[in-house]
Structures are given as structure tokens and as C-alpha cells.
Design a protein that fits this description.
Elements (H helix, E strand, L loop, with lengths): L16 H15 L3 H23 L5 H14 L10 H22 L9 H8 L7 H12 L3 H12 L4 H8 L3 H22 L3
């Protein structure tokens, strides 16, 4: 869980609330287009943002990028800042969101493997004995041996799960014919499986 407050060092009481007033005023002036006020706003809070991001992320290599991302987000969204809270609190909330977004982004990316043969490592880590790709290939091979009309009836009803009436409508034949084709397809598939299994 990411804390929402800056850690305080021993003997530190935190920023003086009156010190936030000019920073908030600079943010409001920057919102109106005052570039000098925007620069003062960034300089005044740069150290705090760096410290806060360092505390949250714990990755010294990412701190500068996250601080820069924080200020980019803040300056892009400065038009929405109304001064109801201090600019420091507003900016640190943006920093916190930047760190959380960074965690989410990193979690969604695939991990790099340090194994020399990553492909065999992945293959060894796959679960064994579960029906899957190999069974699907075998089924396709078995289905390919069936006559076309029986294969269609079997696939529509047994694999796709359509009712016999809908399968009959799709294939343009009576329901009884579809049932007969499915029964014959099952019998042929069972016979093929029995022939291929070792005795």
C-alpha cells in the first residue's frame, strides 16, 4: 500500500502552512499564464516532489522520471487547480498517482528472463496433463477424416453447442438428418480413437 503523506525525519515538523500561501498563489498565477510564477511554483516544490516520489517508489533510477512526469501532469492540468487546497497537497497527490500508474504499467509488462534459453524455460513451466493445444490438434485431425456433412453437423452441435433445430436450419436439412449425421460422426470418431489407442 502506498502511503499518502511524506515521511518526516526526526525533529522535522513539516512545512509551515504559511509557506504554502505563496506557492499556491504562484500556481494560480501560472494557471492564468504567468510563466515566471510557473517557474517559481516548480522550483519551490521540486525538492518535496523528489523526496515524496523517492519514498513511494523505492527505485532510485525511476525518481527523476516520476518527478518529471508529476510536473508534466501538474502543468497540463493547472487550469483545473482552483486553490481550494494548497498547491503542495495538490501536487503531491499528482505525484502519488504518477507512482501508482508506474506500478500498474510495470505490472502489465512482461518480465524479462535471465535464463539463457527462455523458450525452454517457459515450456518447462507450463502445466502438464491438461487438455489443450495437443488435444485440439488431435481432434482436428480426427474431424478431418469425417465426410463433410457429418463434420459440419458434429461441429455445429457438439463443439459450438447449437441446438439441432438451428444446426438443421444452417445446413438446410431436416432435424432428423442432423441427428443421424451427428450419431454417425460420433461412432466414426470413437472407432478412430479405439484404433489409435495402444492395446
Amino acid at each position: 500500500m502506498i502511503p499518502s503523506a511524506l515521511p518526516r525525519t526526526r525533529g522535522e515538523t513539516g512545512p509551515d502552512p504559511s509557506a504554502d500561501e505563496p506557492i499556491t498563489a504562484w500556481a494560480l498565477a501560472a494557471r492564468s499564464g504567468d510563466a515566471d510564477a510557473g517557474e517559481r511554483f516548480v522550483r519551490a516544490l521540486h525538492r518535496d516532489v523528489l523526496r515524496y516520489v523517492t519514498h513511494l517508489c523505492g527505485d532510485p533510477q525511476a525518481v527523476d522520471d516520476l518527478a518529471q512526469d508529476t510536473f508534466l501532469r501538474a502543468l497540463a492540468g493547472l487550469h483545473r487547480f482552483e486553490g481550494r487546497s494548497s498547491a503542495r497537497i495538490w501536487l503531491l497527490a499528482i505525484a502519488r498517482r504518477a507512482v501508482v500508474d508506474s506500478y500498474r504499467h510495470d505490472a502489465a509488462r512482461p518480465r524479462l528472463s535471465d535464463a539463457p534459453d527462455w523458450q525452454s524455460t517457459v515450456e518447462r513451466s507450463q502445466p502438464r496433463g491438461l487438455p489443450g493445444f495437443d488435444d485440439g490438434v488431435v481432434l482436428l485431425d480426427l474431424l478431418a477424416t469425417l465426410p463433410d456433412e457429418r463434420r459440419k453437423a458434429f461441429v455445429l452441435t457438439q463443439l459450438l453447442g447449437l441446438p439441432y433445430a438451428e444446426a438443421a436450419e444452417l445446413t438446410g436439412c431436416p432435424v432428423g438428418t442432423v441427428r443421424s449425421r451427428v450419431a454417425r460422426a460420433r461412432a466414426a470418431l470413437l472407432a478412430l480413437v479405439d484404433d489409435t489407442e495402444p492395446a
